Amino acid sequence: MSADLINSSSWKKMQTLAQSPFDLTAEAALSSSGRIARMICHTAGLRLLYATQRVDADVLNVFQEFADEHSLIHRYQEMRKGKVLNKIKGWESENRQVLHTSSRDIFVSTPKEPHSAGQARVELEKLDDFLNEINQQGRYTTLINVGIGGSDLGPRAVYEALKAYNIQGREVRFLANVDPDDAAAILSSVDLTRTLVVVVSKSGTTLETLTNEQLVRARYIEAGLDPAQHFVAVTGSGSPMDNPTSYLRSFYMYDYIGGRYSVTSMVGCLALGFALGMDKLRAFLRGANEMDEACENPSVADNMALLLALLGIWNHNSLGYPTLAVLPYSQGLHRFTAHLQQCDMESNGKSVTINGSPAPIKTGPIVWGEPGTNGQHAFYQLLHQGTEVVPAEFIGFLENQYEMDIVFNNTTSQQKLLANVLAQAVALATGRVHENPNKCFMGNRPSSIILGDRLDPLNMGRLLALYEAKIVYQGFSWKINSFDQEGVELGKILASRFLDHMIDTQKSSTSVEGQFLDVLEK
Amino acid sequence: MSADLINSSSWKKMQTLAQSPFDLTAEAALSSSGRIARMICHTAGLRLLYATQRVDADVLNVFQEFADEHSLIHRYQEMRKGKVLNKIKGWESENRQVLHTSSRDIFVSTPKEPHSAGQARVELEKLDDFLNEINQQGRYTTLINVGIGGSDLGPRAVYEALKAYNIQGREVRFLANVDPDDAAAILSSVDLTRTLVVVVSKSGTTLETLTNEQLVRARYIEAGLDPAQHFVAVTGSGSPMDNPTSYLRSFYMYDYIGGRYSVTSMVGCLALGFALGMDKLRAFLRGANEMDEACENPSVADNMALLLALLGIWNHNSLGYPTLAVLPYSQGLHRFTAHLQQCDMESNGKSVTINGSPAPIKTGPIVWGEPGTNGQHAFYQLLHQGTEVVPAEFIGFLENQYEMDIVFNNTTSQQKLLANVLAQAVALATGRVHENPNKCFMGNRPSSIILGDRLDPLNMGRLLALYEAKIVYQGFSWKINSFDQEGVELGKILASRFLDHMIDTQKSSTSVEGQFLDVLEK
User: Which member of A66, A156, A250, B350 lies 3.0 to 4.6 Å from B480 by CB, making a disulfide possible if both were Cys?
Assistant: First the structure.
């Protein structure tokens, strides 16, 4: 159906154009000919400023050709309608639909895929009832979310981002690491009688999560409390955890939503609904749904997710940069990059195409980053003057969350934040010539700025869905399966071998090195 | 004095050997011929297992030749003795000594550089007195550390790592970001009357820090409290902040210690001393000092910092991998990688040698990472099966901190953590052949494991100093100045221009895009 990647005419054109990319360091390169005003993409209430990327009108035209030639919009629409995309043709694979967008397709009477959207509504109704019950009891102040990977990073990132909107007196703690010190630190600072424990595992068999669940249950029992009155399950229907005798309530997640795309399913909704209440949770879901809809726009210049995806491919495949820094100028987003690390790298860190052949080009980049302005005082030295070129995506907001700000040196802190985002993008792009070689900046380091009005539930939903769609569009472009994660299996198998050996040698004096060797020699 | 880098015989040999690096995927590559037992480096109570690197005896011999040919140990010794190393020959530069190691060279009567070590002792004595006073008053439970970059990341990383050892009832909060929401979130959850505010800025002029200081002071005044009874300064002697009318006490930092190397100076000691008490603070300093001493060992095989440095150069320059993942299997170290991002990337993200000529080879890599096992459920997919190869440094401990653990499926959580570290290193190295292309693992992905007995103050000091010395050794190898940060200046200048423009257009309706354009056209 869609064309072969590296032999497609648009791909070849892109590589040709990449031999002389737009020079951001040239005289007035940024300010002339309306470049800045023209290179702004508006989508679902967010703006993308991308004049500081090394692209021009020719490159943007080829982006459109590429999107059309490879039927990217069509594939995205098929995804939302429930096509089985999580598979490798001709090989044993998960063979599943990819329907995370259904978990927020709940605002119209004709959702794209009615069955899954119906299931989402049922679970949201159950959640609404449950939260009403809790509110009436007035008993719970704390929720501990026990989960790992997608059952931790996404919900945690969004919770942290929206903490400013929490219901007074409510907090959520996240327990993920099998490191017992993680659990100890959390349990030493909560009142168990006023705490709900939500255990999240689709299969009901995730080792870290079950271990932590046992650890927390043991604490409840020691304290003379009945865990069944405090524990809630989020799991697949029929999993070992779907058991009313052990849990106050069960909420369901379905196999058509992968962990890293599950924030808007019950995986994220329990913690977020508890913290924010149903109205703000619905605003968050509405924002995500708005973005999903906007991501079907066939015009690359007006489809931020698709544009970000193709700018990323340009930087990664055509200009050859191996990483991407995501740099939010908002302390609330301090865990958002960690979520993206999972969502992006687990989706697109692949070497095999959907046909089972070796990927002929580089797939997903390494994604990393920390919030600004903190990062400016840390690793930005390398961004500006290092020998590695790092494309960057800045995220900024015009207004703050808490309405607590201060004028110092005639500007507010929020203005300082914004001035710094703009300044960094310009500095990376234009560079500086200086007689002292140590004060030279090479420039031509590409970046974009995503701008929102304020980091609130609606915009957080949009931002989350924006990146999900970007990642999906990149996977479609590279023709890989962005929805499985076979790469985590070998580590699991080997860890079991080490654990079995530890059981065998329990209490013997074998050193770590000895164990290492013993297991390898087996 | 020392040889030219790329024309040196050891450098050339390294590049030749890199054409056929050790194949970790070969039959019994890891388990045969005593490789694992031989490839363990013991230094200052820590162990480094590096059998899973793509090196053999020939490469290790060239490492030694390289260290000797380029006088690396000699330069490190010169540094500790106070030579002016923070400079670019023939150009205006900072021209400073590099004496962070003096801040812990306080346990012998003959420190390497007596003047700076004497100053460190004086400040520590002042701190001891101050903490005694506070303990007697019994008034303060919380310390807010206001600082950014080196005055935030390092102290925060170590504080988080050692939280398990806090004095009962004491906590430290860190305020860094100029984002006003960061301050709002912290101030909404502390009791100002029981809070000390430590403001950390060497120059006394860091914009973010002064802004946040004003914001917190305003809160004290609103609450009818006298800030001078709560605020403590850590700053350069004679800086605008060195002012007894505004601060309860001043502690000094000196210009021979760069921000990113300042954790063991007063920059870190205020927060850590408050949280842990002087005894544990001294154990932390002692650990760092032990490692500093051990880093003078001329034998690469017995000098972990030097070995790590050269393994890093091998992976980065000879094998061509642009990034380094630091992956602690300890939740306590969840901010340690962020500290290393600064310490490493700000030090070695340079393009100019100490002679002012362009660096002829790649300098510092991109450093990133998150704790395991969390990361295994997130970005490890790309580490195992992605098209980017990511060298990794794992960090693990044999015992946990809180002595709260649970046996589940016959092993403790701490055992699970350790089994996973070992399993990941093996999986990355050996890979797996499989008939299903999607279940293949390429292997030959290099990693090391740093092992300690327990994450306690002593070992934390060792680990911190280990990485500081590694970074310094890499800078010496690349012949760059690891101690300045000219790369942050252009962003500052441009941010001022944007801020000036915002002041000019205050209350006008200019859009962000308009501002962007206005400033660029000026």
Answer: B350
Q: Which two tokens stand for residue B382?
A: 């790309």
Which B residues 259-278 touch A at CB under 8 Å?
259-260
B148, B330, B351 ranked by CB distance to A385: nearest: B351
> Which residue do the tokens 């004491």 mark?
B170
A487-491: average pLDDT: 95
**Counts for chain A of helices (H) and strands (E), in that order:** 17, 15
Is A69 part of the annotated catalytic residue set? no
Q: Say what the pLDDT of residue B517 is.
A: 72
Give the bridge partners for B360, in sequence order.
none
Closest by alpha carbon to A210, among A255, A202, B376? A202
Q: The domain B98-282 belongs to what CATH superfamily?
A: Glucose-6-phosphate isomerase like protein; domain 1 (3.40.50.10490)
| ipTM reported for the complex, 2 dp | 0.96
Measure A111 CA to nearest chain B CA, in Å. 30
Q: Which of B341, B385, B408 sits opposite A378 (nearest CB)?
A: B341
The two tokens of residue B248 are: 């309860």
Residue A57 CA to residue B89 CA, distance in Å, equals: 44
Whether B368 and A366 lie within 8 Å, measured CB to CB: yes
Rounded Cα distance, B375 and B325, in Å: 11
What's the Cα-to-Cα distance from B50 to each of A108, A518, B40, B305, B345, rounded to whole Å?
57, 17, 6, 13, 23
| Residues from chain A contacting residue B441 (CB–CB below 8 Å) | 487, 490
Smallest CA–CA distance from B360 into chain A, residue: A387
- Helix, strand or coil, per DSSP, at residue A232: strand
| Residues in Cβ contact with A135 at an 8 Å cutoff, skipping those fewer than 6 apart | none
Closest by CA to A303, choosing from A313, A294, A312, is: A294
- Give the distance, in angstroms, between the CA of residue A486 and the centroid of all CA atoms in the same chain: 19
Q: Which two tokens stand for residue B45?
A: 């109570």
Q: Return the CATH class of domain A9-69+295-484.
A: alpha beta
pLDDT confidence bin for A432, thresholds 50/70/90: very high
Q: Could you tell me the residue ranges of all domains in chain B?
A: 9-16+54-70+297-481, 98-282, 489-521
